[in-house]
Amino acid sequence: MLDSIHVGFTGLQAFQQGLRVIANNTTNLNTPGFKASNLQFSDLMDASSSGTKGGEAALGHGVDALASRVDWRQGDFRQTGNDFDLALDGQGLFVLRDGQGQTRYTRSGQFQFDAAGVLLNRADGSKVLGRSADGTLGEISMAGLRTNAGKATEVARFTGNLSSTATEQTVGSVQVHDGAGGEHNLQVRLTSLAPDKEGRWKVELLDGSTSVGEAELAFEDGLPTAATSKLSFSYTPAGRSAQPLTLDFSSDVTSFASGSLSTLAMTSQDGFGPGALTKLAFDATGVLVATYSNGQTSKGVRLALGRFSTPDAVRDLGDGLYAETGGVPWLLGAAGDAGFASVRAGSLEISNVDLSREFSDLVIMQRGYQASSQIVSTANDMLQELFGMKHK
Question: Which segments does the entry list as coiled coil (predicted)?
Fold first, then answer.
């Protein structure tokens, strides 16, 4: 009967541990990146019963609560509207480096840039690590991304119809940029060389009333010839050095009879002025993308991810942080690589706790605890009865 009390007591201890695990899971229902745990149970055998006696099985010695196991199932996603709240859709964990230089991992992507422009984990201030093209791990910084320098125009593209029966056509509002990003409004004047040179036009580039240069554009069957469809000039803006400038008539430019009406116009150019940073966010592959007021974008470092090959290689540190253990190395990669998750910016992965399952387990733990306490109580009553028989 004393053994029965001990067996019942092991049940009380085990189910108490199980209740603690369930309580921890349910209280972290709203913790971003939290992974639920499941308690493992194992039966105990009497150490003195090494086998069977007289054909009877050895007696059990109760139950033991083993270490809990983390449930790594994917959690749902919740949009936050914060560009630096990141969720992982798939396998992998964000890689962090704490103040002591230790590598840590997390699924809770609650990040922010500090005053120095370095991406940090809001929970503990650890630096979020990125991975360069050569695989080197390093901090993710805004350095070099706050402004975007201007670019001089190299090619101006034209489309439309240049009336073959017209004698002259001037295309205004040819806006180009110099090397410092300054804007200049040029003009292109086209003068027909017919009848001496049918289908050929003199093209003159003008900066106000000053001629930058001239070239010749030829049409065959209403289309520009390949040799003359791209005209090269050397343009020197006031106070700036000379820059090459190409007028491109090679696409969607025609020359058919349409009276004096021509629709030829510049449609695009590849220069732009300087821009200030307007938005900073991560794309699905974990690349930091900066957007500027001049419409340009620039890419920074790519988020690094870690992935374990066995759950035995993971140690739970609390605060949503994990570390390597057991001497089993983790696999390192980048978001979007084969075997690693993609990134959802502006969202967080919420806890994967399943309340219905937790409440079902809670009932089981409660019944198990009650049954174990009843065993202890019954064995105690039997002992009391035995002591009573002795006194009689």
Answer: none
Determine the Cα–Cα distance for residues 350 and 232; give it in Å rounded to an integer. 58
Residue 356 Cα to chain centre, angstroms: 31
The rounded Cα 371 to chain-centroid distance in angstroms is 50
Measure Cα distances from 284 to 8, 88, 159, 340, 352 in Å: 54, 9, 36, 12, 22
- Residue 54 pLDDT grade (very low, low, confident, very high; cuts 50, 70, 90): low
Work out the number of other CB atoms within 10 angstroms of the CB of residue 49: 14
Query: Are the C-beta atoms of residues 279 and 158 closer than 8 Å to each other?
Result: no
The token duo for 353 is 């706790």
Q: How far apart are CA 300 and CA 290, in angstroms?
A: 8
Question: Distance between CA 111 and CA 257 in Å, rounded?
Answer: 63
Distance CA 6, CA 369 (A): 14
pLDDT digit string, tens, across residues 69-103: 899 999 999 999 999 999 999 999 999 999 999 99
Largest pairwise CA distance in the chain: 142
Structure tokens that stand for 172 in this block:
């205004």
Give the pTM: 0.77
Name the band, by pLDDT with cuts 50, 70 and 90, for residue 52: low
Mean pLDDT of the chain: 91
Domains and CATH numbers, the chain: 2-72+352-391 (no CATH), 89-147+277-348 (no CATH), 155-269 (2.60.98.20)
d(Cα 61, Cα 46) in Å, to the nearest integer? 5
